[in-house]
Amino acid sequence: MNSASGAYEHFRQWAATLLAHQRVSAGNEAEVYQFSTISALLEGVYDGDATIAEILRHGDFGLGTFNHLDGEMVILDGVCYRLRSDGSATRAALTDRTPFAAVTLFHSDFEIAIQTRTAGADVTGAIDRQIKSSNLIYAIQITGRFAELHTRTVMAQEPPYPPLTQATEGQAETRFADVTGVLVGFRTPDFEQGISVAGYHLHFLNSDRTAGGHVLDFTLEHGQIAVSGASQLHLSLPTSGAFLGAQLSGPDLAERINKAEGPKP
After folding, report:
1. How far apart are CA 189 and CA 138, in angstroms?
2. pLDDT tens figures, 185-218
């Protein structure tokens, strides 16, 4: 991408985000835009055609993964980061592609201050007590100092791709202590299991934007929770590749998702 086309792409992305924020401010319902499904990842559909530039046209906050499962994704303040299996984080290229991502335009509906050391389960419990309904979608941003934080990142895969439950068996895990940063993710209704990850799905990015991963557990020393609700889900499905022949349902779907995703705070 040359400098002229790069500048145009940045301008178009900025304009699209500005217009979307104006729609939310005007009273239109907030939306989560999602490309593909978690059930597709379960079946080893690790290559997608959607670019990061395309995903960012739909939101400035979210998470996902990259083609070949080569890193966890964090989107924060309109910037996309790639979190690799060594625990490092770098800014992703707009031309990078994803097999799964979920984004929204973050607007804080309410905030919760955490002033004492609090376990992850108690932090999510505090959110649950304040949300309007467990049947809506909520973007979750938790910023602060973490006494402890346990993450994992799946290593990049090579075709023929194994299912996600096998790919995560070789995941790299990292434990952070006394670290500042932000948790980015969603609280999704139970009925969306398979389309998304039901319950809490969070990724971590440190304050320096140099490290992070998929969150397995955490203890928050102190910090601020911001919650952005959404009542609309825009699901965009791939129209080519392995997705078209994948088996995306089954009686053990929830069990396989829980095995692949690991413990939740």
Report:
1. 9
2. 999 999 999 999 999 999 999 999 999 999 999 9
Q: What is the DSSP letter of 130?
A: T
Strands (E) in the chain, as ranges, are: 31-35, 50-51, 61-65, 72-76, 79-83, 89-91, 97-98, 100-104, 110-114, 118-119, 137-153, 172-188, 199-206, 212-230, 232-236
Report H helices in the chain.
Answer: 3-25, 38-42, 52-56, 120-128, 164-167, 253-261
**Residue 20: is its pLDDT beyond 70?**
no
């609280």: which residue's tokens? 187
Domains of the chain: 3-261 (3.30.1330.80)
Out of 159-173, 193-207, 212-226, pick the least confident.
Answer: 159-173
Question: Which SS3 state, helix, strand or coil, does residue 248 take?
Answer: coil
Q: What is the pLDDT of residue 2?
A: 56
Residue 28 clears pLDDT 70, i.e. is over it:
no
Phi/psi zone of residue 36: left (φ > 0), alpha (ψ -120 to 50 degrees), beta? left
Nearest residue to 104 via CA among 233, 236, 18: 233
**Per the structure block, which two tokens stand in for 36?**
């593909």
The structure tokens listed for 88 are 């490092």
